[in-house]
Amino acid sequence: MLELLQQPWHWAFSGFMIALTMFILLFWGKSFGMSATMRAMCAAGGAGKKISFFDFDWKKQSWNLLFALGAVIGGYIASTYLASPEPVHISSATIAHLQTLGVDYPSSIAEGTGYLPLELYNFETLFSLKGFLLFVLGGFFVGFGARYAGGCTSGHAISGLSNLQIPSLIAVIGFFIGGLLMAHVLLPLILQL
Amino acid sequence: MKGLKYIFAGILFGIVMTKSEAISWFRIQEMFLFQSFHMYGIIGVAVVLGTIQIAVIKRKKLKDIKGEPIEFSPKAMSIPRYLFGGIIFGLGWAMTGACPGPMYTLLGHGFPVIIVVIISAIIGTLTYGALRSKLPH
């Protein structure tokens, strides 16, 4: 059983499990949306005193903060007990493309899991212009954009599209305009820095 | 403790994010490069099952665990807000290779640099709140 769980999951099973997670939250009277936790953290930190956007009862989102804490623990459990025997199976076209940009893919599990590119995700890169752009500006864009759009992947692409919301469709189109522009045009330039 | 169940649901979500490989920076690049069906398959199945689920909840007027009707609030219509916000989010998603759910999960995997990404995302959230009245919505 454990060996079966350690294998990477088929995309169809993964999609089913995400839908199940959303269903569990709906059954508990909650809505699935991860970026809302960041707004709640700002409110919990007292930002509501100066900025009205954060002047709300963040304790109503405390369930979501616990959910996010669970996601951290889930990541720990998955990496400790359910680790795949091999790195993520990325398409050879992507591996070749990223190699031309100087990002190597781990050829074995000893070299890496294939979750994050370790030659980028380290403190040495973080304190360079490249790292500042990728992690500080990139993270800033995720937080700023998610709140501006009123949701992230979970809130719009999963919950919103499932509820047939046109605004969510516009947001997801936006996610792809930004993502395509970055992956095809801007990221190759940033990685050359 | 009442909140414990949310931690358990979060643990499930973190495991799902890991085993689906949605936390992989490489998978996100592959998706935006249109070089694999994997991520589209995951999101597609989740949305199809989610649509059926919500349609059934609405039609059968299902109630939540407390006996309250499960309600969905429609999102206010606007184009600039969702489009501009979405584009900015998409740029950040492809830069970091992670959206908020995977960010938390990756923290549990013990990648220390992800803390900087999470703090930056919180600062981005804070900045949006401060600039909100000046942005087109």
Explain the overall architecture.
The complex is a heterodimer of chains A (193) and B (137). Chain A has a domain at 1-83. Chain A has helices at 2-6, 11-27, 36-44, 62-81, 92-100, 123-126, 129-149, 153-162, 166-191. Chain A is globular, with a radius of gyration of 19 Å. In chain A, helix 3 (36-44) packs across helix 4 (62-81) and helix 8 (153-162) packs antiparallel against helix 9 (166-191). By secondary structure, chain A is mostly helical. Chain B is mainly alpha-helical. Helix content of chain B is 66%, strand content 0%. Chain B is built from 6 helices and no strands. The longest helix of chain B has 22 residues, at 38-59. The radius of gyration of chain B is 18 Å and the shape is globular. The mean pLDDT of chain B is 96. Chains A and B meet through helix 2, helix 3, helix 4, helix 5 and helix 7 of A and helix 1, helix 2, helix 3, helix 4 and helix 5 of B.
Describe the biggest sheet of chain B? Answer: none
Give start-end ranges of low-pLDDT stretches of chain A: none
Cα gyration radius of chain A (Å): 19 Å
Give the CA-CA distance, first to last residue of chain B. Answer: 40 Å
Q: Biggest interface, and residues per chain?
A: A-B, 120 and 111 residues
Q: How many strand units of chain B? A: 0
Instruction: Give the overall pLDDT of chain A as a whole number.
Output: 96
Q: Which term fits the overall shape of chain A?
A: globular
Number of helices of chain A: 9
Secondary-structure element string of chain A: HHHHHHHHH
Number of distinct beta strands of chain A: 0
Termini of chain A, distance in Å?
A: 46 Å
The structural class of chain A is mainly alpha
Helix content of chain B: 55-70%
The proportion of strand residues of chain B reads under 5%
Note the overall shape of chain B.
globular
Helical amount of chain A: 55-70%
Helix- and strand-based class of chain B?
mainly alpha
Mean pLDDT of chain B: 96
Order of helices and strands of chain B: HHHHHH
SS field, number of helical segments of chain B: 6
